[in-house]
Amino acid sequence: MADMDKKDIARKLRALRERTTENGCTEEEAYAAAAMALKLQTKYNLSMSDIEIGVERCLLGFVETGRLRHHEAQYTLHGIKVFTDTICYLDNCPTGKMICFFGQPEDVELAKYLTKMIKGAMDQELAVYKARCKMIGEPTGRRQSHSFLLGMARRVSSRLQDMKREANRETKQTTGRDLVLVKGTAVQAAFDKDLPFKLGRGRSTYTTNSDRGAYQDGQAAGSRVNLNRPIGGCQGGHLLGMD
Predict the structure, then answer these.
(1) Among 60, 66, 57, 59, which residue's Cα sits nearest to residue 116?
(2) How far is CA 40 from CA 37, 80, 165, 181, in A?
(3) Strand pairing of 59-64 and 87-93?
(4) Helix H or strand E segment including 98
(5) Other CB atoms within 10 Å distance of the CB of residue 196
(6) Which member of 66, 114, 145, 233 has the greatest number of CB atoms within 10 A?
(7) How far apart are the C-alpha atoms of 45 and 172, rounded to whole Å?
(8) What is d(CA 89, CA 181) in angstroms, rounded to the nearest whole number?
(9) pTM of the model
(10) DSSP code, position 149
């Protein structure tokens, strides 16, 4: 790519990075901008270091769950934070639990989008699973539902981590740089500066009263989730919101 072309793309990427909900965009506009930025980076083999990773540009975003208890979607958060290069933690708000992401603006928007999309997919797949079990006379209680969602969440998280490893491998081959290390250092420095409190180490464990069959069905459902949707576009993103 010519230097002038590279500068033009960098300017476009900087403009897209400013299209966040914090800057007045709607959620759908912010998700679409994050998706377009990711498409440009992939198409032109640009790493974020080419468009000025900056400590001062990091921000905090959150997704309200509207629930007093956390949804099993929390078990996907490790994969989401790895995939998006964000710092993630759980917190409380007046309406219930919320999921917080800290990082570069477009990464935070992508993390929020993925959280909502995956949670919506999990709820949809659970409804299909319960209807199928009811039809054939199998139990569909809380134990089975939790096991199904847990299996689905673990599978989705694993897939996101695999996708990130592959993307980082391709970036290193193309640019010779470890983008995860570069971006991670900047994000952690900004987090330590702006949010200097200590986060507890959340530990997600499997329930001892799980249903193995339901868990395996959930894993199969997790393999069906279309994780390429943020790259393909985000039109109608508001339809994927959390209840």
Answers:
(1) 66
(2) 5, 20, 19, 21
(3) unpaired
(4) strand 96-103
(5) 7
(6) 114
(7) 10
(8) 20
(9) 0.70
(10) H
DSSP for 104-146 reads SHHHHHHHHHHHHHHHHHHHHHHHHHHHHHHHHT---SHHHHH
Phi, psi for 170 (deg, rounded to 5): -70, -40
pLDDT tens-digit map of 2-47: 444 666 766 777 777 677 766 777 777 777 777 777 666 656 555 5
d(CA 152, CA 72): 9
- Residue entry with tokens 């083999």: 45
- For residue 125, give the nearest of 224, 213, 216 by alpha carbon: 224
Exposed, middle or buried: residue 215 (CB in 10 Å: 0-12, 13-18, 19+)? buried
Question: Which residues in the chain come in under a pLDDT of 70?
Answer: 1-7, 9-10, 17, 21-22, 38-57, 66-68, 95, 171, 174-180, 182, 194-209, 228-243
- Report the alpha-carbon distance of residue 107 to residue 170 in Å, rounded: 19
Q: Contact at 8 Å (CB) between 19 and 29?
A: yes
CA separation for the pair 237, 230 (Å, rounded)? 9
Nearest residue to 102 (alpha-carbon basis) of 85, 78, 117, 118: 85
Neighbours of 199 (CB within 10 A): 13
Cβ atoms of 195 and 93 within 8 Å: the answer is no
Q: What DSSP designation does 45 have?
A: T
Those residues with Cβ within 8 angstroms of residue 211's Cβ, 6 or more apart along the chain or in another chain = 143, 144, 147, 148
Closest alpha carbon to 10 in 46, 43, 34: 46
